[in-house]
Write a structure and sequence with these properties.
Length: 102
């Protein structure tokens, strides 16, 4: 089956925010080109959901009711409606833990 992919604003914001924070923390060694490449790679990996990124049950309570897929760096929460995959959230691997404020 060929899927359509829609990345919700929350997922987009999480990816951009993570790499913006990396850029701020490592401003002398992490370039704007690094930031753009990392964001682009994270976005493009979404299109591998249900292809090479396999469906899993979520490990975070806030993702209950969704499926989860992961790369080596990013975890994605998503829903499938017909032939459309909605990516509703994203979390970098180093942040994959339940937070108190969820």
């Amino acid at each position: 089956m060929e899927y359509k992919y829609i990345i919700k604003p929350r997922a987009l914001q999480k990816i951009r925010s993570f790499y913006n924070n990396v850029a701020l923390k490592y401003q002398h060694t992490y370039s704007y080109e690094d930031l753009e490449r990392n964001v682009r790679d994270a976005f493009f990996s979404v299109y591998q959901i249900e292809k090479t990124l396999l469906r899993r049950l979520p490990t975070l309570k806030r993702w209950e009711g969704c499926y989860m897929a992961n790369t080596d760096r990013w975890y994605y929460a998503y829903k499938i409606e017909g032939d459309t995959i909605y990516v509703v959230d994203a979390c970098h691997a180093q942040n994959m833990k339940e937070s108190v404020s969820s």
